[in-house]
Amino acid sequence: RSGDACGALMQLRRPDGTVLVNNVEYNEVPGVLRGQPDLDEATGYSPYPGNTNQIVLSLPQYAAALAHSGGRVPEFVNPKYADKARGVLAAPTRIESMLQDIPRLLPDPSAKVSFV
Fold this sequence. Notes:
Elements: E1 7-13, E2 19-24, H1 29-33, E3 50-51, E4 55-56, H2 59-69, E5 76-77, E6 95-96, H3 102-105, E7 114-115
Antiparallel strand pairs: 1-2, 1-3, 4-7, 5-6
């Protein structure tokens, strides 16, 4: 459903114009949509299929991506707050990286990546 804390499969356009269908983490969906609604009024559901972050990839292509990046991947901090004012953390915060960033890191834009 729209607004669920679930990643969404979305078609993304790279700066060079090539297209990538990739999972977008639930907390990044509003930024990707840039104000567009995440709701199909007729059904009450999101038009973007949900995803549970399972990925299938080719190990040689993944090894090439690691060699290309030197093993570096984007990191972020996603704090979980205990209160609506976002003043108290519910648990210690940690640095994370996202599985769905892997397709964006592949040096060959034609690399095949599938989400399950």
